[in-house]
Design brief:
11 helices, Aminopeptidase, four-stranded antiparallel beta sheet, alpha+beta, 382 residues, single chain
Length: 382
């Protein structure tokens, strides 16, 4: 694959482990757990994100005057569109029907992780534009159909937009902490009917069960074995086969266990369900869930209500509970725009996508406004 040869040198790195953890994390900063070098190493070393699974690492790196990385764009050469959660299958079909090859494409992302975060890891902010231009050059020089950066932070959305990338607006449901004192204080902000519904759901979900929260060294291999069983069941039903390998969980637990929160439901001391979360400085990120026993409302309890309680108790501003799911709305999660950026070199294809995005964005914005107006929160008195 041809590398970037622009005014600011940018090199392509085939493994996250080729960059020291100290250098990687100096660029990533401490706020987002998915930006950490340990997370990318666990994905790649476990074989979850590799060329065999259609996620070939091609991380773009530019160095500072001190010889250390000043910026990193974690990126992958993708041979499909799975595990991204920003769906471009229709674009791929259109390009293929026109006689082109949509794949491979360049994808800047946290693999299998639809969580907002930086796609440019910057020790020096000036490195951001160089990395964006390098992604464009790599795309063009290798005749890739496109490059994509998904689930951008508001600040980096502006950087990609100003660089001329197409901006796409999607929708997720995030819980926002309005400085609640506890879960009851949160419930008080909801309508009476929603408060009653949530109390009934929680009562039914936890009947006869014990809910435990585990993090750091409290998580051992038996816990990961149990959770792997849960994850396989959910993955098989949703995607056909799970994205992550079993060893990923052991690696992540060992390397960054303090950023992991595993919630388990126990019946007579035995785990029957679990939800895996990652702890950010500002946000709790809900990622995976599964069970071996079908208990009504237990999914809501472990993935949504327990996450809210933890976020309130630990001073987090929000909970991101993953992609899609309007059922989250009734449980206090608000519709929230999520942004991606797309670089398409071919002028005709770019214009067609731009026209589509203009219509799609308007529809998404209107839906978010409607859902927010008809959400579970008490309406102010006129």
């Amino acid at each position: 694959m041809a590398e970037s040869g622009g005014a600011v040198p940018v090199r392509v790195v085939g493994k996250a482990s080729e960059i020291s953890l100290a250098d990687w994390n100096a660029c990533a900063g401490p706020v987002n757990p998915f930006a950490q070098g340990e997370f990318f190493r666990a994905l790649e070393e476990s074989g979850s994100a590799c060329s065999r699974t259609g996620w070939q690492p091609v991380h773009l790196v530019t160095d500072g005057v001190d010889g250390r990385p000043a910026g990193i764009m974690p990126a992958y050469l993708k041979t499909h569109s799975q595990g991204e959660y920003v769906f471009d299958h229709a674009w791929a079909d259109a390009w293929e029907r026109a006689g082109g090859s949509y794949y491979p494409k360049l994808q800047a992302a946290f693999p299998f992780t639809p969580a907002t975060g930086p796609r440019l890891l910057l020790r020096d902010e000036a490195a951001g534009l160089a990395l964006i231009r390098a992604a464009e050059q790599v795309t063009e020089s290798n005749n890739f159909s496109s490059a994509h950066a998904t689930f951008l932070t508001p600040e980096q959305q502006i950087m990609f937009r100003d660089a001329g990338w197409l901006i796409r607006t999607g929708e997720q449901f995030h819980w926002q902490n309005a400085n609640y004192r506890d879960f009851q204080d949160f419930l008080a902000a909801l309508s009476s009917s929603r408060r009653k519904m949530i109390r009934k759901e929680r009562e039914r979900a936890t009947m006869g069960l014990e809910i435990v929260h585990l993090t750091g060294s409290a998580i051992n291999e038996s816990h990961w074995d149990a959770f792997w069983t849960f994850y396989q069941d959910t993955g098989a039903r949703k995607w056909g086969q799970p994205y992550l390998k079993r060893s990923f969980f052991s690696l992540i637990g060992e390397a960054m266990g303090s950023r992991v929160l595993l919630m388990l439901a126990l019946r007579n001391g035995k785990p029957i369900a679990g939800a895996l979360n990652f702890i950010g400085d500002e946000c709790l990120y809900g990622r995976y869930w599964g069970c071996t026993e079908d208990v009504p409302f237990l999914h809501f309890e472990l993935c949504y209500y327990q996450a809210i309680e933890w976020a309130i108790a630990n001073g987090r501003a929000r909970v991101e509970a993953g992609a899609q799911g309007q059922h989250k709305l009734a449980r206090g999660y608000r519709p929230t725009p999520v942004i991606s950026a797309h670089y398409i070199p071919n002028p005709g294809f770019r214009q067609a996508v731009a026209d589509y995005l203009a219509r799609e964005t308007q529809a998404v914005i209107e839906e978010i406004e409607y859902l927010d107006q008809h959400g579970p929160f008490r309406q102010p008195q006129a």
